[in-house]
Amino acid sequence: MASCPANAIHKDEKTGIVKINALECIGCQTCNMVCPTHIPKFYPDMKVSIKCDLCNGDPECVKYCSPWAISYVTREEAETILKEVYEKR
Question: How many CB atoms lie under 10 A from the CB of residue 14?
């Protein structure tokens, strides 16, 4: 968020979801360069950077993934799952 010269990146304090407002984005791609997880992607056709906004906390991809390959969990739940997976190795 701090890297955006247009202040187009906002974090919902209640949910923690970070969003990029495409109407405010100037397409400088600074967020793409500084994000340690490489989440924002630049879309040249639209000349903006975009990232998943988790459908405001109700991700459609999770609801309609027929093999249940993806799930939406809290950060705490994700950390617990990762510890369980990687500590078994």
Answer: 7
Q: Look up the CATH number of the domain holding residue 54.
A: 3.30.70
Say whether pLDDT at 30 is over 70.
yes
Cα–Cα distances in angstroms (integers) from residue 38 to residues 31, 42, 56, 61, 81, in the given order: 9, 11, 21, 20, 22
Domain membership flag for residue 77 = yes
Rounded CA gap, 46 and 44, in Å?
Answer: 5
Query: 48 CB contacts (<8 Å, ≥6 apart)?
Result: 20, 22, 25, 27, 42
Q: For residue 72, is it within any domain? A: yes
Confidence of residue 63 (pLDDT cuts 50, 70, 90): very high
Which residue range is the domain that position 57 belongs to?
9-87
Give the three-class secondary structure for 76.
helix
User: Model-level pTM greater than 0.85?
Assistant: no
Contact, 46 vs 22, CB < 8 A?
A: yes
